[in-house]
Write a structure and sequence with these properties.
alpha/beta, Aspartate Aminotransferase, domain 2, Aspartate Aminotransferase, domain 1, about 40% helix, globular, binds pyridoxal-5'-phosphate
């Protein structure tokens, strides 16, 4: 082997995988088993006491999932990762390691609709209080910091309008406050943006979207950047204090720069239980092999579709950071020079009714609540994903009544434009 560091496309195909040592299988096998035989009693005891790494039970770890974890950690530039059942499960497991009841975390207001719900309602019942800030106003994050703040949560490319977040500016606020910055990198994927390079301490993904990429398998992942010191000020007892369930070991002291990933596995996943099926891990690994090819095509198509819409008389405005006139174009050129993603919104002069009508007339675009599929997708957020918000909150989160969201797929761009043309004419 040369001592050249492998490039992104090579890592997307190979990181974490090797031919199966017993059978020679080249593709990563699906280890469809719940449990693993111990060598002897001492081996079993050392696995349970965290003195040795190895497989015990698929709720805590599985060899197929381990390849996925190593691959995404390599693509994101982190020290370790933990795969879980969904993007939402990743968010619960991350925050459970950081917040005690009564604590707060600051979240960007522009988020996936499901995350807004999860943070506002489900997390409140755990005693975790979300404080909203505006990603276009960095000072609003600074103002939101209190002694109870334990984390800051943002999306790199934000739902629904595909706006670009100034990760470095917000990471400076997080560093000053002494709390980790968590970045949901779902819409960018590490092909477009690697948040750890810009100061993120933890990256989360819905693997369901671009990483899996084919709209067939749910999954989520947590990547530990290995950069945060969890021992300062006793703020993060899950990581810094002796753990009674593991003979009093301190995770940060024992596991150093991958302690957070370990905490998520042995305290979060073990006890909360949202394990990823090895079958889904296999499907997502297969998807990741073509991530660089797909993502580039997604972005190129999205740009062509956005340009077409920007010139159409029925369209009031297009919010796509890849357009030179867009207010996020400067940030897009800095953070996502290969392309500004494939999820964006546009608004129609005909308002709410025109939005609903367009969605019903499109044929190639599927009307559904997902993004990051090979297929092109469309939704009218105000009547679906963001319908639970009041009108002011809809507009603030970029989902006003006249707004339509697209997730542009990898079909021929001429066909996508023709479909939009006929639906807008109808
Ligand atoms: C879909 C999505 C999630 C939630 O992921 P699931 O896999 O559906 O649980 C979180 N964040 C973003 C940006 C998403 O698009």
């Amino acid at each position: 082997m040369s001592d050249r560091l492998p490039g992104f496309s090579t890592l997307a195909v190979h990181a974490g995988a090797q031919p199966d040592p017993t059978t020679g299988a080249r593709a990563t096998p699906i280890y469809q088993t719940t449990s693993f035989v111990f060598n002897d009693a001492d081996h079993a005891a050392s696995l349970f006491g965290l003195q040795a790494f190895g497989n015990i039970y698929t709720r805590i770890g599985n060899p197929t999932n381990a390849v996925l974890e190593e691959r995404v950690a390599a693509l994101e530039g982190g020290t370790a990762a933990l795969a879980v059942a969904s993007g939402h499960a990743a968010q619960v497991v991350v925050l459970q390691q950081l917040l005690q009841p009564g604590d707060e975390f600051i979240a960007a207001r522009k988020l996936y609709g499901g995350s807004i719900n999860q943070f506002t309602h489900a997390f409140k019942s755990f005693g975790w209080n979300v404080v909203w800030a505006d990603p276009d106003d960095i000072a609003s994050f600074e103002r939101a910091v209190t002694p109870r703040t334990k984390a800051i949560f943002i999306e790199s490319i934000a739902n629904p309008a595909g706006s670009i977040t100034d990760i470095e500016a917000i990471s400076t606020v997080a560093r000053k406050a002494g709390v980790p910055l968590i970045v949901d990198n779902t819409l960018a994927s590490p092909y477009l943006i690697r948040p750890i390079d810009h100061g993120a301490d933890i990256v989360v993904h819905s693997l369901t979207k671009f990483l899996g990429g084919h709209g067939n398998s749910l999954g989520g992942i947590i990547v530990d950047a290995g950069t945060f010191d969890w021992s300062t000020g006793g703020k993060y007892p899950m990581l810094s204090e002796p753990r009674p369930e593991y003979h009093g070991i301190r995770l940060q002291e024992t596991f150093g720069n991958f302690a957070f990933a370990i905490a998520c596995r042995v305290l979060g996943l073990r006890d909360l239980g949202p394990a990823l099926s090895p079958f889904n891990a296999f499907m997502i690994l297969t998807g990741i092999e073509t991530l660089p090819l797909r993502m580039q095509k997604h972005c190129d198509n999205a740009k062509a579709v956005a340009e077409f819409l920007a010139g159409h008389p029925a369209v009031a405005s297009v919010s796509y950071a890849g357009l030179p006139s867009d207010k996020y174009n400067r940030l897009a050129r800095k953070y996502a020079p290969k392309g500004a993603g494939a999820v964006f919104t546009f608004s129609l002069k005909g308002g709410y009714d025109a939005g609903v009508n367009l969605v019903s007339k499109l044929q190639l675009f599927s009307h559904l609540a997902n993004v990051g599929d090979t297929r092109s997708l469309v939704i009218h957020p105000a009547s679906t994903t963001h319908s639970q918000l009041d009108d002011a909150a809809k507009i603030k989160s970029g989902a006003g009544p006249d707004v339509v969201r697209l997730s542009v797929g990898i079909e021929d761009k001429e066909d996508l434009i023709a479909d939009l043309e006929q639906a807008l004419a109808a």
